[in-house]
Amino acid sequence: MANLKLQHIDKIYDGGVKAVEDFNLDVKDGELIVLVGPSGCGKSTTLRMVAGLEDISNGHLLLDGKDITRVPAKDRDMAMVFQNYALYGHMTIYENMAFSLTLRKEDPNVIHKKVLAAAEILNLTTQLNKKPGQLSGGQRQRVAMGRAIVRTPKVFLFDEPLSNLDAKLRGSTRREILLLHKRLQATMMYVTHDQTEALTLADRIVCMSMGKVQQIGTPLELYDNPANIFVATFIGLPPMNMFDVTVHEEYLEGKGFKAPLDAESKKILKSYVGKEIVLGVRPENLVEGKDIAVKVTDNENLGMNTLVHGHIQDGDRTFDRIVCKLRGWCNYKSGDTAMISINRMHFFDKETTVAITGKESK
Amino acid sequence: MKKEVDANLVVDRMRYTKNKTSANMAILAILFDVFYFVNIYKSDVSNYYYNILIGGSIVFNLLFLLAAFLCSEEIKQYNENYCYLLLAMGIIQFIRIFIIPMRAHNATVVIANVERQVMLNSQFIRCVIYLVVSGVCCVYGALVGIVKSRKLKAYIATLGEEKRRD
Question: What number is the ipTM of this complex?
Answer without folding.
Answer: 0.74
